[in-house]
Amino acid sequence: LMLRDGNLDRAVIALDQVPLDDEDTDLLRYYTLRGMAHLRRNEHALAAEALENAVSTGMAEPLVYVYLAQAYFQLERYRDVLGALDKVSVELESMSSLYHMRAQCHWLLQEPAMALATLNTADQKFPADPSFLRRKVFFLIELGLHREATQQGRVYLSRSEGKREDYIALGSALRASGELQEAILMLETARLRYPADVEVNKVLAHAYLDQGQLNSAAALIHDASLLDTSLTSEAAELYRRAGRPHQALLLNGQVTDQQVKFRQRLALLLELQRFEQAADMDGDLRRTGLIDDEDIRYALAYAVFKTGEFETAEMYLQKLERPDLFRKAAELRRAIQD
């Protein structure tokens, strides 16, 4: 009664008072109740010990083996889980969760063929339950069998509502298998269902990037950045790569990370050949510590050179030590000399 009412601590105290040496004590019932109490208190080692004692009486019911399997699973004794499940009677095979447990044990024991076979059996036995097919799809993805995972994934989505994670995983599997158009179709469907989901937009954007559709990718990341501001600089960079530097510069003004913002702005101003504006960034670059970055220093030197301030350009070039930039500095000095 205490167990049923959730009074687990009191139940254990009551069980401690049972005289085990009394010949009238029902040891099977005692160890079963103790095992259930420990199991519900997440004391899995004690639960397994008690339930093993219940089994040793030789009169344990099949449900005791289910409890024992649960305790073994939490203790990561997966081979013992399978052994306990083998003792379950036909009546208990109607519990779909036991098939999930068996499949997961085979998988964790690195027996993928047995795991998939278990899921196939369960899927036939419980045709109205799509969870077995879902697990199978994710197993196939982890095995790198992307094409098969995709086929099974379509079947799963046709039989269920599908979760956000399902669309993302299947879209990623399609990308990995080279089925970019199929990936985009699936992820666009996900975007219709979850229009405000940042992760869906990001995965779909990467699929468009794989296809070389930079504008579409940039627009998607831009939309996502409205919910996650850390993506603003990435959206700006994609617009720059798509040949839309003015849009990139507009977005750059919204970047909150100052170092990221000014590094990106300097590159954009140089690309737009706004050399005077780039040269005027000296104060911002010093304030954020970016002036110590040799790539930044060389870029600033180039911008100043293009404005005709040769002495200032030489000041920036003097502190360059990296071999590749040292060679570029020498070329810039020759251009200044000319």
Task: Please provide a brief summary of the model.
This protein is 72% helix and 0% strand. With 338 residues, it is mostly helical.
Instruction: List the helices and strands in order.
Output: HHHHHHHHHHHHHHHHHHHHHH
Overall geometry? elongated
**Helical element count?**
22
Number of strands: 0
What are the low-pLDDT stretches, counting only 5+ consecutive residues below 50? none
Kindly report the average pLDDT value. Answer: 91
Helix content: over 70%
Q: Biggest β-sheet, characterized?
A: none
Computed Rg: 32 Å
- Report the structural category: mainly alpha
Percentage of residues in DSSP E strands: under 5%
Ends apart, CA distance between termini = 97 Å
How would you describe the overall organization of this protein?
- The protein is 72% helix and 0% strand.
- The model has no long low-confidence stretch (mean pLDDT 91).
- The protein is mostly helical and 338 residues long.
- It contains 22 helices and no strands.
- The longest helix is centred in the last third of the chain and has 15 residues.
- The protein is elongated.
- Helix 8 packs antiparallel against helix 9, helix 10 runs antiparallel to helix 11 and helix 17 packs parallel to helix 20.
Give the topology, please:
Elements: H1 2-5, H2 8-16, H3 27-40, H4 44-56, H5 62-74, H6 78-85, H7 96-108, H8 112-125, H9 131-142, H10 146-159, H11 164-176, H12 180-193, H13 198-210, H14 214-225, H15 232-241, H16 245-252, H17 258-271, H18 275-279, H19 282-287, H20 294-306, H21 310-317, H22 323-337
Helix pairs in contact: 2-3, 3-4, 3-5, 4-5, 5-6, 6-7, 7-8, 8-9, 9-10, 9-11, 10-11, 11-12, 11-13, 12-13, 13-14, 14-15, 15-16, 16-17, 17-20, 20-21, 20-22
